[in-house]
Amino acid sequence: MTKRIIVIGAGFAGLMSALAAKRLINMNFQQTSEPAEDIEVVVIAPEEKLVVRPRLYEENVADMSAPLGQLFNTTGVRFLQGNVESIEVETQQVVSVNVTGVRSTIGYDRLVLAAGSDNILPASVPGLKEHSFAVDHLERAVQLEEHLKNLPLLPAALARNTIVVCGGGYTGLELAAELPGRLAKITGLGSDTRVIVIERADVIGPDLPVDMRPLVLQTLERLGVEVKLGTAITGIDAGGVTTSAGEHIETLTPVWTAGTVATPLTQQIPGEKDAFGRLMVETDLRCPQAKAVFAAGDTACARTDDHSDDDDDDDAAATHPQYTKMSCQHAMPMGRYAGHNAAADLLGRPTLRYSQVMLGTVLDLGRDDAVFVARCGDEAAIALSGAAAKPLKRWINETLIYPPSADDLAGALEAGNPANRTVIPAGLGC
């Protein structure tokens, strides 16, 4: 009887989960001669494409996706188009709704939840949903780009020429640094455009490495981007935003980038969640109270450090544990481990302990600049900055995070190998 692994989501974590599962299933067939088709891998997602979400702050955003149909055909992954409505853990079934509104139920033996995240839209900010833009999903980013291109058609006014980025985190900073160059290309706006970043924390980029912040502020100042720290957005209307300082900033373009929350589907899985709604998973990315469910990407909160000696009171990792962040540099390896482990569990093999000690943060800072900080545990140091870091950021955005070639079965499956480590090509300054 055929067994089934369902992967919910076709983003970075979902794609890598599917490839990793197929890789191990095929390896098992080669080693034992058991039929590979005894375990099928099914991906359920709204569309058969990977949205390159880290690039949605860039221009020409409609092109920021990669088709997955041929890759799935090559690797033997079955795709079902639909939005998952519910996960029934007790009966191990998933209910999804397709584009015509038809519901279907499909059972699973193992499940990988990799359905991503959304912007947090606080109900405490009146007008937020009605009057703001966002870049957390492709459709919203396309809407923002079309709006920017149409600004010159509107009467010249302060509100027309002012862009307010609500949130000074990773996404907000990359968008803010990108906007001056994009606005300069939009004829008819003139040179009196303003880009303002509003961040409620007292520091820019609260989640960024400390050493990165001065460079970020210097670059934003050089680009003419204004920064307001220790300030929250308290309201948004058709003519602007109101801040906690009582200021009303005239703008037709408030862009909300402040905060992220995991897909609501995590709430259907029993077990502890973190402040972002992510499932607190075991060392192999399994959900503790739903043993047939694994989670990866923005749906999971996992230890990244080497926690093999947690029983040792002197172990620094046990004292200061490191956890995953909502970013593709975590999502891709987490997907590899989750998919591999889901398949291993069905095949009766040991699962692998997820660990990702070496990390890096690469922040795009406009047309000519970027900054790269390499991290290992609590230690962080600037490795590249300015124009020297730009080729690395471009390689990440345009090559590293894209799907493998569908023309090479072995290479495509190897992309799902949990042992994969990012190797920066020579010539990128590292």
Tell me about this structure.
With 430 residues, the protein is α/β, with parallel strands linked by helices. It folds into two domains: 3-118 and 261-357, FAD/NAD(P)-binding domain (3-Layer(bba) Sandwich); 121-258, FAD/NAD(P)-binding domain, CATH 3.50.50. The chain has ten helices and 25 strands. The strands form eight sheets. Strands 5-2-1-9-21-20 form a six-stranded mixed beta sheet, covered by helices on one side. Keywords: FAD, Flavoprotein, Oxidoreductase. Belongs to the NADH dehydrogenase family. It holds the Pfam family Pyr_redox_2.
Radius of gyration: 22 Å
- Summarize model confidence as the mean pLDDT: 92
The low-pLDDT segments are 310-314
Helix content: 25-40%
Write a brief caption for the model.
By secondary structure, the chain is an alpha/beta fold. It is 26% helix and 27% strand. A hairpin with a 5-residue loop joins strand 7 (93-97) and strand 8 (103-107).
Secondary structure blueprint with pairings:
Blueprint: E1 3-8, H1 12-32, E2 39-45, E3 49-51, E4 65-67, H2 69-75, E5 78-81, E6 83-88, E7 93-97, E8 103-107, E9 110-113, E10 117-119, H3 128-131, H4 138-150, E11 162-166, H5 170-185, E12 194-199, H6 213-223, E13 226-229, E14 233-237, E15 240-243, E16 248-250, E17 253-256, E18 260-262, E19 279-280, E20 286-287, E21 290-295, E22 300-301, H7 316-319, H8 328-347, E23 358-364, E24 370-376, E25 379-386, H9 390-400, H10 409-414
Parallel strand pairs: 1-2, 1-9, 2-5, 9-21, 11-12, 11-17, 12-13, 19-22
Antiparallel strand pairs: 3-4, 6-7, 7-8, 10-18, 14-15, 15-16, 20-21, 23-24, 24-25
Helix pairs in contact: 1-8, 5-6
